Amino acid sequence: MRKRLEILRIEHRDLDAAIAALNAAGANDQLQIARLKKRKLRLKDQIMMIEDHLIPDIIA
Questions:
Q1: How many domains does the chain have?
Q2: Residue ranges making up the domain that contains 41
Q3: Is residue 8 a part of any domain in this protein?
Q4: Contact predicate 8/48, CB 8 Å
Q5: Please, which contacts does 51-55 make with residues 24 or more away whose CB atoms are closer than 8 Å?
Q6: Is this structure's pTM higher than 0.85?
Q7: Residue of 14, 16, 25, 47 with fewest CB within 10 Å of its CB?
Q8: pLDDT tens digits for the chain (60 residues)?
């Protein structure tokens, strides 16, 4: 599960870089940028779910 988490984090960073590159290049394809942002948000949700599963809640 930790390996999957690392893969998701890498993909999330790659999407962030791709979005930044498209914005810097002045890309007019807002639909593509929006799709990449949605995908990035889905990845973030998956990352959070795995992290929550791996890190137990500690009640002090």
A1: 1
A2: 2-54
A3: yes
A4: no
A5: 51/5, 53/1, 54/1, 54/2, 54/5
A6: no
A7: 25
A8: 899 999 999 999 999 999 999 999 887 889 999 999 999 999 999 999 999 988 877 765
Q: Which residue in the block uniquely carries the two structure tokens 């007019």?
A: 28
To which residue do tokens 């999957």 refer? 4
Helix axes 30-54, 2-24, angle to 10 degrees: 160
Tokens 């795995």 correspond to what residue? 50
Using CB atoms within 10 Å of the CB of residue 43, give its burial: 0 to 12 exposed, 13 to 18 middle, 19+ buried.
buried
